[in-house]
Amino acid sequence: MTTTLENRVAVDRRPNALRLGIRRGGLEIRQFLRSRESVVFTLAFPVMLLVIFGSVFDDNEVADGVPFTQYFVAGMIAAGLLTVGFQNLAIMIPIERDRGALKRLRGTPMPPTAFFLGKVLMVLAIGAAETVLLLVMAFTLYDVPVPGPAQWVTFLWVSVLGITACTLCGVAFSSLVRSGRGAPAMVTPVALGLQFISGVFSLFTNLPPWMQQLAALFPLKWMTQGMRAVFLPPSFAAHEPAGSSELGLVALVLVLWCVGALVVSRLTFRWTSRD
């Protein structure tokens, strides 16, 4: 009887998937911060672009009373979430797969849920840090008006849905990358291409119609559109392709991307290299 009770207590003390995931998330964050290349490219690159474009186009306006820096801040926050979620994971996971780290983790008692939870916590922590950094720069250096309560609510759900979609897309895309060595060469052009066609670096309506239609197939275009509804005055909505911010459609598209990327991730994720 005593032995049975001790066995039950021992089972109850075993960490569950949630606890393991939280611990794994702390480890992922520490590993990320120890990699100078990842920190510089993921955190410093959007800040550097904001400084460069903000200095070059400081006197330009995208609409009456709307400076380019205000427009660019909205796009860079969305692009920063894409970098942290999609680009970071799509490069990191193939490298870990090539090193055999994923295979070793799969052979441990740790449930797969804990591994993915750790990645999600790392993405959320780094994404929050980068967003706060960009916001501080926007409010202090470029005089971007502080949004009101309703705009902050929009900012919250666009950020959550956007980074969720980008994270799941990063996990799904990692299965297409054949090797960790070739991951940056394959992933970076995709991320940069999406930024150029999604209205991050230039006014979206100035792009060719076919490019606007192509961008509408991907989540970044809708993330930038949602962020513009937060940081730009309501009058700017008339300059959007549909003449309004279409926040309902923004939410729908991002939710669909979350669901679709989740399904693809579950079907295609690989713990070992193809070779």
UniProtKB/TrEMBL annotation:
GO terms for cellular component: ATP-binding cassette (ABC) transporter complex. One of its GO terms (biological process) is response to antibiotic. PANTHER family: NODULATION PROTEIN J (PTHR43229). One of its GO terms (molecular function) is ABC-type transporter activity. Residues 37-267 form the ABC transmembrane type-2 domain. Its main location: membrane. It comes from Virgisporangium aurantiacum. The lineage of its organism: Bacteria, Bacillati, Actinomycetota, Actinomycetes, Micromonosporales. It holds the Pfam family ABC2_membrane. Keywords: Antibiotic resistance, Cell membrane, Membrane, Transmembrane, Transmembrane helix, Transport. It is a multi-pass membrane protein. Coiled coil: none annotated. It comes from the Bacteria. InterPro entries: ABC2_TM, ABC2_TM_bact-type, ABC_2_transport, Nod_factor_ABC_transporter. This is Transport permease protein. It is found in: Cell membrane; Membrane. Belongs to the ABC-2 integral membrane protein family. The chain crosses the membrane at residues 39-57, 69-95, 116-142, 154-173, 185-204, 247-269.
